[in-house]
């Protein structure tokens, strides 16, 4: 399969194809990435690879830390990810296409990107101003009974939303039209349900759409049953709102 080298943007979250990714970019390594992306002609995609962090920190420490308060933080493109950054990331990620890159007066960037295709991380290069990676595209196979599974997942998702809205005493999706294409359904639900990063990562790297939908159907039913027994969910926004500083 054909491989390509892309800038790498590790996050403490999972990006799915078709989902929007807003970023507040302030670290120098990622500023350099955005400056290079701005050199790409406007009629060409400004692409970078997003991977979820398995072991490490999204933002590199900027002050002496523990246990030695005098130890200076490591700097550079791989700061916070150890001596072999490839081991710090999950191997399956998503290509992001930056539709908007706006530089602020202080040199930071406001970025709005969209996930496009899944990729597998083959190698990571830390020799430049920011991390780059050799990646290969992962085709999305539909699998068996994807259409019927998508219908079941949408029904279960609507029940989940209703239960969640009741627990939070407000509506989550009034008037929102949901898609019916199986792969799109599977990615939308994976991004929307309150799940931890390892679980979302498992959904991203599912072997096919049907497998992802089957997994989601089980989780939606389980989560809906849990919500039904809870009087309220006061902290649910904490698991849904992006917390990335970059």
Description:
This protein folds into two domains: 3-55 and 78-137, Archaeosine Trna-guanine Transglycosylase, Chain: A, domain 4 (Roll); 146-229, Up-down Bundle (Methane Monooxygenase Hydroxylase, Chain G, domain 1). It has five helices and six strands. A hairpin with a 5-residue loop joins strand 4 (92-103) and strand 5 (109-125). The radius of gyration is 19 Å and the shape is globular. By secondary structure, the chain is α+β, with helices and mostly antiparallel strands. A five-stranded mixed beta barrel has the order 1-3-4-5-6. The longest helix has 23 residues, at 146-168. Helix content is 29%, strand content 23%. It starts with a strand and ends in an 18-residue tail after the last helix. This is ATP-dependent protease. Residues 6-224 form the Lon N-terminal domain. Keywords: Hydrolase, Protease. It comes from Streptomyces colonosanans. InterPro entries: Lon_prtase_N, Lon_prtase_N_sf, PUA-like_sf.
Strand order in the largest sheet: 1-3-4-5-6
Contiguous runs where pLDDT drops below 50 for at least 5 residues: 58-64, 169-174, 233-245
Overall strand count: 6
- The radius of gyration over CA amounts to 19 Å
Helical coverage, percent range: 25-40%
**CATH level 1 class label of the largest domain:** Mainly Beta
Organism: Streptomyces colonosanans
Pfam families: LON_substr_bdg
Protein name: ATP-dependent protease
Domain Lon N-terminal: 6-224
What can be said about this structure in brief?
The protein is α+β, with helices and mostly antiparallel strands and 246 residues long. The protein is built from 5 helices and 6 strands, in the order E-E-H-E-E-E-E-H-H-H-H.
């Amino acid at each position: 399969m054909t491989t390509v080298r892309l800038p790498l943007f590790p996050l403490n979250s999972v990006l799915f194809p078709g989902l929007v990714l807003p970023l507040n970019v302030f670290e120098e390594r990622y500023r350099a990435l955005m400056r290079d992306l701005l050199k790409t002609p406007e009629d060409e995609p400004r692409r970078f690879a997003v991977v979820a962090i398995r072991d490490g920190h999204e933002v590199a420490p900027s002050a002496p830390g523990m246990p030695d308060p005098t130890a200076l933080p490591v700097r550079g493109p791989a700061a916070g990810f150890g001596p072999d950054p490839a081991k710090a990331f999950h191997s399956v990620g998503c290509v992001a296409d930056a539709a908007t890159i706006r530089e602020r007066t202080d040199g930071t960037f406001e970025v709005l990107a969209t996930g496009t295709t899944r990729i597998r991380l083959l190698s990571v290069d830390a020799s430049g101003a920011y991390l780059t990676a050799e990646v290969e595209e992962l085709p999305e196979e539909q699998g068996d009974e994807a259409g019927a599974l998508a219908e079941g997942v949408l029904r279960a998702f609507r029940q989940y939303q209703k239960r969640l809205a009741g627990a939070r005493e407000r509506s989550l999706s009034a008037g929102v039209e949901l898609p019916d294409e199986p792969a799109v359904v599977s990615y939308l639900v994976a991004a929307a349900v309150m799940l931890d990063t390892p679980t979302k990562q498992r959904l991203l790297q599912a072997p096919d759409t049907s497998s992802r939908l089957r997994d989601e159907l089980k989780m939606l039913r389980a989560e809906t049953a849990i919500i039904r027994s809870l009087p309220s969910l006061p902290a649910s926004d904490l698991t849904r709102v992006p917390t990335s500083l970059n």
